[in-house]
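Write out the bound-state structure for 1-deoxynojirimycin.
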Amino acid sequence: MEFYITRSLRLLSLLLMLAGLGWFSAAAQTSPSHNPQLASKELNARVEALLKKMTLEEKIGQLVQYAAGYATGPNASNLKYDELAARGQVGSFLNVVGAEATNHYQHIAMEKSRLRIPILFGQDVIHGHRTTFPVPLAIAASWDPAAAELVARYGAVEARADGVPWVFSPMVDIARDPRWGRIIESSGEDPYLGSVLARAWVKGYQQDDLSKPDSVAVSVKHFVAYGAAIAGRDYNGADMSELTLRQVYLPPFHSAVDAGAATLMSAFNSINGVPATANPFTLTQILRKEWGFDGLVVSDWGAVSELINHSIGDGPKVARKALEAGVDMDMEGNLYGTVIAGQVRSGKIPESVVDEAVRRVLRVKFALGLFERPYTPEGPAYDATPERRAAARKVADETMVLLKNDPVEGVGPLLPLPAKAKKVALIGPLADNQRELLGAWAVTGDPKYVVTLRAALQERLGDRLLYAQGCDLLTGEDASILKHVDFEGAMAAGDHSPIPDDAKTIAEAVETAKKADVAILALGEPANWMEGEAASRATLGFTGVQQQLLEAVAATGKPVILVVLAGRPLELTWAAAHVPAILEAWSPGIEAGDAVADVLFGDVNPSGKLPSSFPRSVGQEPLYYAQLPTGRPAHGDLSHFPQNPAEKFVSRYMDQENSALFPFGWGLSYTRFSYGQPSVSRAEVPVEEVIASRSKPVVTVGVDVKNTGRVAGTEVVQLYIRNTAASVEQPVRELKGFARVTLAPGEQKHVEFPLGFDELNFYNAGLKPTVEPTTYKIWVGGSSLATAETSFQVVE
Ligand code: NOJ
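---
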C-alpha cells in the first residue's frame, strides 16, 4: 500500500512537472523556439501525424543510436543492425560513413520498415571531415570566428557528401586544465571567446537553414561542465557553485543554442553529485525552460548505461531518470532499447514522455529534409584538392602563436628565417610524422594528405636542409600506453615502435645540429595516444626523451627554434629560459608543414593568440587569467602578472610564480603594435539604462592601434573589464571584446568596442544576471596583460 501511494505521488508529481513544462499542451509543440525551423507549424504537423501511427516499439526505436561502423568508445554493441532497421527500431547510427554504407541502411529503413522513417547518421566531425584542419584549440588561437565558420562549412559539405547529416561538434566545454586531454577539442579557458566561437561553429555547420542539402545538424557537447573534471582526469565529476556554472561553463552552450543548434549531447560527468545525463536541472530547467531549446538531446557514448556505475540506480531506473531528465536518444548504450518499453507498459513512465522525446528526434529529421532526400548520391572519391588545401593552410596560418622571439647575440631575432638561410637542421619526432601532425580526433582524416615539416622545408631549402629524428615521442618504457589505446579503423593509434637506443639517436641529432647554422626542433606529444578523449596527463612536459633531445641540441650552442606541436598547453619552462624562439603550432592538420614554413620564413606574419594560459608547472593547474580576487592578493590585485618573489602572507606559491609562463591572449608578431590611450564615450551611465540595453551598447571604448614596425601584421586587439564593486566578487579581468586588425607598416586604426548589458552583467547571489552601480576598469591591449587603461561608472 505504502509503495502504491509513494508511486502514485511520484507519478502525480511527475505529471505536474510535465504539465509545468507544457509537455501536455498543444502549444508546447510550437512554443517559442530557439530554432524557428524546428518550431514550424507544418513541420510539427508532420511530426504529430507520424507519431500517431507509431507503435511503442517504433517510438523507442527512434530513441536509440548504435555504432554500426567503428568504435569511438568502449564495448560497442554488436547487434543485427539490418534486422533492427527493417523493424524500424534504429533512430540513428553513428560511425557509419560513406554513401555506400549509409545508403545500405537507409534503403532498409525506407523500403522495409513499416513507417519508412529515415535513419539519422551521426559522426564526430571535429576539425574537418575528410579535409583535416588544425585542432579546435588551435582554431581558437586564431581568435577568428570566420576561421571556425570556414572549418565547419568544409566539415558540413564533406560530411553530407559522405551520408552524414549530423555532426558531434562543436565541443564548447570551457577547459581550464590542460591535464584534461580534451582541451584540444575546446576553445580554451574563456567563456567570452568560447561563446563567440560557438556561434561561428554552429553557423558554419547549419547555415541558419537545416534544410539546405549541404547543411548538417550540430550536436553541441558536452552538456555540461565536462571540462571541469576534478584533477583534470577525464570522465571525473565536476563540483562547482551554480554561480560558476552559469557564469563560466554555460555561456558557450547558451550561445550555441541561441544560434539555433539543433541538438546537444549530454556529458559523462556528474555536476555536484548529479550525473549530467540524468540531470533535470541542467537538461530541463536550464536548457528547455530557460533557453527554450526544443531540439534533440543525445547522450554521450554509453552515458545512459554508465549511470549504473554512477550508482544512481539499476538499468531500468537510470534509463527512466535519463529520459525523464530530457535525454532523448541513448547513444550506443542499448538501455532505452531494452528497458523503456516495459516501464511504459507497467505505468512507470508515461508514454507522453516517450512521445516528447520522439517528437524531438523527428523534428530534426524533418528539418534536415531526410524524408525527402534520404539517400546520398555516390560522389567522386575524396581528394585533397588545391582549393581544400588552400583553406586548410589559411586557417593553419592564423592559428600559429609566436611565443618568443628574443634576439640572439650577433644574429638578432631568429625568426623570420631569411629565405637564403644557410644550413638548417630539422630535428624531432614530429618533423616528419604525418599521422601525428593530423592531430587527435581526426576520425576520417587521412594522414597521407599531410605535408610534413620535413617535406615543406625540403621544398624550400633543398640540400640546405639536414634532418634527424632524434627520438620517438615515447620511449620503450611507455609501451604500456600503446596497449591501452587501440582504437580500430580510422582511430588507429598508428604504428609507433619506440626507438630502442635513444642515446644513439640523440647523439646523431646533436651531430646534425653541429653541421647547421640553426636548428629547428619539432617536439610535442603523441596526439593519438595522449590527446583527446581518455588522454589526461599528470605531467605536462614533452613526452619520452624529447626534453633531453632539446637540451642536448641547445648545448651545441647552435641557435635553436622550437616548434611545439601539441593539442594542449605544455610546460615549456626550460625552453622559455634557454631557447630564443618558440612557435606554438598545435596540431595543424594536412597543411602542417606548409603553414609552419609560412611563419618560419615570414611569408605569413604570425597573428595567433593563446586561448589558454600556459603554466610554469603543472602544479598551477587549473590556471586561468580570470581569477577571483583574494583578500591577500599577490602583486597588487593582478595576481596573474609576474610577482615580487619577496612577498609573504599573500596568495601565492612559495616555489613558483602565480603567473602563467605565457598568459591568455599572448602571441607575438614580426612587427610591433602600439596602443594609444583608450577612451570611453561616456564617463557615467545610469544603471537602469544598462539593464534595459541588453545587446545594445551603452558605452563605446575606443583605442588607436598602430603598427610601428616594418612589416604588415594582424593584431588581435583585446578588451578586458573589471567590475570593481559588485555584490558578488568578480574576476580580476574578463575578456569582453576582441577584433583582428590588419595594419600596414606605420598604419594606425581606431578600434571600437561596444559594451552593454550583455558584456557588463554578472550573476548576483540570487543567481540572476544583473548590473549594479560600480566602476568598470577597462584595459585594451594585445594580451590579458594589457596595460592601456580607462574606466567608466555605472551610477544610480
Ligand atoms: C564519446 C565522446 O565523448 C564524444 O565527444 C563523441 O562524440 C562520442 N564518443 C561519439 O564518438
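---
Residues 72-73, 94, 124, 168, 221, 300-301, 533 surround 1-deoxynojirimycin (CB under 6 Å).
Residues 145 and 196 are 7 Å apart (CA to CA).
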